[in-house]
């Protein structure tokens, strides 16, 4: 009959997903603009997708309307009545099939206040919801991992792959928020179906590096789903195949490695995949077989996103395998200057792994360390929107060193504005005396040789070839304030918090542009439009709700 679009969204009410049709109206307006507006011929990739894959092309909006378009929407497509509980469970178990059959996947994530005025929904809360995490995971592990993020009626972003979305503040399904916690148990067979289907696809396509990445990542993906949920060990294996092998030999055999020094097509060795599994006994056995605890990866992994030069310690920190972190530190694994971006401490800070931050600093790693992009660990922790525990631990370690005067929180404010920083990050950085009106003296992307090269290429592209989300940001970054950066990249919750904290609306960047020039009113949420007109009360309300503060009148 045509194409199908899967709509992933949060519920604004308890008995109805959208009582006032706020979300659906935004989605309708977004589709209408994509169809009728000649200026919206394509949807630009989000910044992370473009950084991960510089050759990525924008998504042409004509594809959405090449055939009749239908939608899968849970309130309509899953039985909701109690008496239909059996059919409801059948539909829930079929979610992977629904996602797989859909040509498009839309994440409906506008910043909206709930009808009860007791909570705020945003891209960050969508990433945190257990049901939404399941739908996103099903999409990432389907035949087409791309999806479209709908932030407002005219702010759509194309997320190209699982690598980009994995860096969008999400986490395991079982660790997501559920209104009814028992729902998590309903999703266990659904998640296992998704995993098994993807593993089989990877084997059939002979993508062995992808197969290893997913096979060994299951302990992370299944986290929070219950201790009795066993991961899929391998596909199509006889029961007695490994009965005479040790655990280490079995691990090597399942992953297709002949020895601990065998390197796969992705440039990873067994020690790297063992760090991904997170079993300290397995890592200890590999070390006993003379695996190198400081062995760098030889290539950028196409399925996991780590660049060449990443050590096992960084992998363990990033996936929160802290028992492995402890083991590697005990054998004096190096934590300085490993890999251009994913230094162990930066990796821990990025995913809010406060425990690993503490272990690394106590082992001698400096909390003031910077990666090859010139970002401090505190800046990294602020920008990922996963919580403030790691940042607080970094600050504690800096206090121990007596080096608090060496920290300038303002660059963290700029970096968090363009990524997944939320209102709580603004509040914390402002408390550290970050300047919400600071204008960058020079392009923030030109701190290092690597970033200067990237900046030059993207700026040339913006001027002479094509305009994308990343190129627009870099073009206007010089002299930009955190508020400008947040609005250019569509981080509306962060922008509201900045306005509530006193961010000015009239500064101009080095290009001579002010906020009104960079953000057309028709593309911004109502609370931003009101702020541009001089009314900031709605932004204050958004900021308070995002931080969990509820104002009550008596």
TrEMBL record:
ANK repeats lie at residues 266-298, 478-510. Pfam families: Ank (PF00023), Ank_2 (PF12796). InterPro entries: Ank_repeat_dom-contain_49, Ankyrin_rpt, Ankyrin_rpt-contain_sf. The keyword Repeat applies. The keyword Transmembrane does not apply. Gene3D superfamilies: Ankyrin repeat-containing domain. It comes from the Eukaryota. Coiled coil: none annotated. Keywords: ANK repeat, Repeat. This is ANKK1 protein. It comes from Symbiodinium natans.
